Amino acid sequence: MEGHNMSTGGGGHEMSMGAPPMTMNHKMGWTHMTFFWGSHSEILFKGWPGTRGGMYALALVVVFLPGVLVEWVSTWNLTGRGRSRLLNGLSQTAVHALRMGLAYLLMLAVMSFNVGVLLVALAGHALGFLLFASAFCNKREAERCQAGTAEPPPFKC
């Protein structure tokens, strides 16, 4: 607060709290901070998909696929009995890094706050789980369901 005396009795000096003016020479964009429905959005990259409906549809496909892939990668087990602990650990770490990278990519896409993006991300996860981890398509999980020992699968490598 420039020009106001901020002293507390005996100090007698003024403290200037004003900030220097800032200028912006580039266009400022804005991001939705609440969920919205519409095809005019920015997902992952500045200006993408833009305002064309076809590009928005492509963006939804691009968001859907990593959801399926995250569930598929979650079922991988690249460890082996005859392999060293180091190789098993490295393969588990590689699978984990890939899964986390895909999951964070999806998280960033959902942070566009576009309801369509959220729905296709969830649909991708759901289809991936159905195809790769559920009792519907996974024989081992189906046997566990028949035996009454099935539980939701943990996040694992």
Automatic annotation (TrEMBL):
Compartments (UniProt record): Membrane
Spans traversing the lipid bilayer: 54-74, 113-136
InterPro entries: Cop_transporter
Topology of this chain in the membrane: Multi-pass membrane protein
This protein's record includes keyword Aminoacyl-tRNA synthetase: no
Molecular functions per Gene Ontology: copper ion transmembrane transporter activity
Family, per entry: Belongs to the copper transporter (Ctr) (TC 1.A.56) family. SLC31A subfamily.
Protein name, entry field: Copper transport protein
Originating organism: Elodea nuttallii
Taxonomic classification: Eukaryota, Viridiplantae, Streptophyta, Embryophyta, Tracheophyta
